[in-house]
Design brief:
Chain lengths: 547, 547
């Protein structure tokens, strides 16, 4: 029975033109990676689950594609029954405890609605049932259990069928997460950074540090697919480990500039910030936990104006004094060097802030001295991507003005890349190119070279067995000169063969018919102009030289 | 807690040198694919399970890596309970039936050992319990159930605990296979051919036939890892669909020759056979099912001699008359054309055989006319790879004599590639290059160019901040000329920097110290000879020209 074929959502087939265009971008990125001294490595598509899990937060863990163990993967399936029993035991224990507490204290529904009442109960229960509670994974469940007992069982009476149903729901909700590690020990790579850290630690004795590596491979994420977001996509990363020299920051900025210039994508903006500047600002506004709210609000300065920004900050709980103290940030102007001077007075009392300024000064002045080809470097104190990840420089590249597209590249310095795998104190810094977004930008701006649409240079029309043998010989010589050439496989109607030539956008069609064979010559038709030229079969070099 | 990192068995990390060497092979294959008019496509790493399952036989299905559904993948887990119940029901039904039969007929143990006794019982039961039996997947289980009842339950008495244990075993054995489709809807690609067929059918309206596509992507198989066999490996395939012209066969042979010649791997043998020749031989020996035994035995002719080969054939059940009829195959000699002449008399009465000969004649004579660069074409009537798969030409490439390695490439023509997905009557033909094996052969023969070991052309020693700024400027100019260059990131001890240069096999080290800076010059040290040359910083072109 024939199936109507399809592909999984969030994945893509790439046609010849798309592959040619993607490879065009990749080849240029690769060329500059290599010219900058980066070396390629490749890692397996799947890693042991423990290598990946727990490295990207709970949300990341959820988005990692897990691979089913092969063979009898259900060997441990009995765990499911056991797990059901444990969930049930926990729920009943907690339930009885709640009833006891309610009875002993004579609590009513009114009490339940009192501020802090359920919170107190919650923390007490959590402490008491910690051991069983771990099967319930997270606080939300204990909280809903509390609500359930108080609200759904009227007058705190017991309704065991309802409880059983609740247990069933919980069990169903939790069991996939509990069960996955029992039947899956491998997972598809989620990014290239964690596998790289794993690689560095595993191969530390073969590596000459500083190690400049690049890696261009697909990664997989079980994200909800949407425009420009796929479940399989390429990452193009260059990282240096084992050097804390600011030369790396300088070179990576140059590298961005070199790649985008080579792609003819002029007018990009490389935004630069430093985690230490952000720490300095956090000191100034007096609260680390408000830093993100602060930068998010500040980022809107151009769009909504100073007043609205301050309003938002106040709403988020940032004090008037803090806003006043940070006011120089509202008035920053001039180029990067001038802005740095303004930042200096703001962060004068913050040691970490001043260290960030000094780093930025060195990077910016070196780049100024060396010059950029087509990108502009911009200091952006609101740039906070991967706030908890980066420890020094933070980069982000925006497409030229007028192109509505998020960042087309980003990166930064992270002090302890390999620590998770046991190799301490190795500083890393890296940048990434967003292949899919760069593709969309180049497409929008019409920057793909026309030659990428052409999959073949010369097509020989097939006039029959004897003629095609001569064509094959000619094609052999063309191919030896690196020219993409082929003979149409059968002596089909001329119209059909010419249609094929048009569809494949062949620039030259070669005709060797009966007469040409007799004269030992071939006719070349230039498809764009319709012009025809005759060459000797003994001297195809004369044609080759025109290509 | 730091983990000691590892990678899944059967997978590999590739170091910079390994990536460079693999890319060297891939680039050459790719270059010739393109020069021969093939266009690249790429398909997703995972496909919908129904696209892949059932296409590679039971063994293949087992070796396909399945991806766990994301989210609550156990939504259907209750199926497991249901399945246990069904297995149990089937077993009890069959068990009771056996007991009934035994009792009614007064069978004894002695009967059990009679020839054909259990077979008769088996087919009777199979017919009767077909419906329930499908949960038990295969005949082996019904057979073991029969044995179990007759042998393990003494005197045919019932021991329900033993039966329950048996049911449990069966259930455990079967449930993984039954359960997998419930929790996994996607699977990693097993080869490039099925995804290609799926691609052709899905995109048939955008494709200009004949469609010549190439595809170089990894595939995954849950095979037992062993030397040269991995769970993740690349396939490099070129296929043509929509043309039954023998020109394709000719071109694919030329393509093999072009690639291996370009890799400097001269002396390869391209073995050629045709499925129709094999069908002809099957007619001659009078038995299709003995064809494989026949060709396997015939293949040993060189090693064990005619007598032993005939002995093996007789042992396999091939009749003396058949062997006598096929005797011309034992005496084949000369080149391909001569062998074909000999085959003609053997297969004179077989229409399909003669059609195979005529195809081979055309291919071989055209190749003879066009010539091969370094490979030799050999007719091999014992070549039967993928016997049930190919319908016309069959190819296989062996490494040069003296290199012990299986085939380094193979392929053939298959008449109905896309039929499984509903597009009928599209002939396909394709070849594949075995990247890992080619790698091992090139390594063994020392055929990788030395330049692949060199990851960088020029290293500038870092003498401090001021000097390194000049180095950065020089390096910028070198990079613009496509030269791989870098500045050592910090002013570390000379010894350390030189050690790094040696480890990375840098051919030229550039020195810009205090004196050079003063004189606006740079010193180039050629590492191989120790020679030093001085150039002006204003005129780095003089140095670049020497590279």
């Amino acid at each position: 029975m024939a199936q109507k074929p399809s592909i999984p959502k969030g994945t893509r087939d790439f046609s010849p033109t798309e592959v040619a265009r993607r490879n065009y971008i990749i080849q240029i990125i690769k060329k500059h990676f290599e010219v900058y001294g980066f070396q390629p490595i490749e890692t397996p598509s799947f890693e042991n689950s423990e290598t990946l899990l727990g490295k990207y937060g709970d949300e990341g863990d959820r988005l990692i594609f897990k691979i089913l163990n092969s063979g009898d993967f259900l060997k441990q399936a009995d765990y499911l029954q056991e797990f059901r029993a444990k969930v049930s035991k926990s729920i009943h224990l907690i339930n009885n405890e709640i009833l006891d507490i309610v009875k002993k204290n004579g609590f009513t529904k009114k009490d339940y609605y009192k501020d802090g009442f359920t919170e107190t109960l919650f923390f007490g229960l959590k402490k008491k049932f910690g051991e069983h509670h771990r099967y319930l994974k997270n606080d939300t469940i204990l909280r809903s259990l509390l609500d359930f007992n108080f609200l759904r069982i009227h007058d705190f009476g017991q309704d065991s069928s309802k409880i059983e149903r609740f247990i069933d729901e919980l069990y169903k909700k939790e069991r996939s997460g509990e069960f996955a590690p029992k039947i899956s020990e491998k997972a598809l790579r989620y990014d290239l950074t964690v596998p790289f850290a794993r690689y560095v630690v595993m191969h530390q004795n073969e590596i000459d540090f500083p190690f400049k590596r690049y890696q261009i491979q697909p990664v997989w994420r079980a994200d909800r697919p949407q425009k420009g977001r796929f479940r399989e996509f390429y990452q193009c990363d260059a990282d240096v480990v084992g050097s804390d020299s600011l030369l790396q920051e300088v070179e990576l900025i140059q590298l961005y500039d070199a790649v985008f210039t080579d792609l003819k994508l002029t007018g990009t903006t490389i935004k630069l910030n430093n985690r230490k500047i952000l720490s300095g600002i956090a000191e100034v506004i007096g609260a680390k936990h408000l830093l993100i709210d602060f930068t998010v609000a500040l980022d809107k300065l151009d769009k909504i104006g100073e007043e609205k920004v301050k309003e938002e900050m106040l709403n988020k709980g940032i004090s008037e004094i803090a806003i006043e103290k940070a006011s120089p940030l509202f008035a920053m102007n001039g180029d990067a060097a001038e802005q740095l001077a303004q930042l200096k007075s703001l962060l004068a009392d913050s040691e970490v802030g001043m260290s960030g300024i000094s780093e930025l000064e060195e990077i910016i002045s070196t780049i100024k001295e060396l010059g950029l080809k087509s990108a502009s470097l911009q200091l952006d104190v609101t740039l906070a991507r991967g706030l908890n990840y980066y420890t020094g420089a933070i980069f982000e590249v925006s497409a030229p003005e007028g192109v509505s597209m998020g960042s087309i590249g980003g990166g930064g310095r992270y002090d302890d890349l390999t620590g998770i795998f046991g190799l301490k104190d190795v500083s890393g810094i890296g940048i990434s190119f967003g292949l899919d977004r760069i593709y969309l930008v180049l497409e929008e701006l019409g920057l793909f070279p026309e030659r990428l649409d052409k999959s073949i240079d010369v097509l020989c029309i097939n006039f029959g067995e004897k003629e095609s043998l001569s064509s094959l010989k000619l094609v052999g010589k063309l191919r030896e000169s690196g020219i993409k050439a082929e003979v149409y496989p059968s002596a089909a109607k001329m119209q059909k063969q010419m249609k094929y030539a048009n569809n494949r956008k062949v620039p030259y069609v070669v005709l060797i018919g009966e007469r040409e064979l007799l004269n030992q010559e071939f006719v070349v038709k230039t498809m764009a102009t319709g012009e025809q030229e005759t060459y000797s079969l003994k001297n195809p070099g004369n044609f080759i030289d025109t290509l």
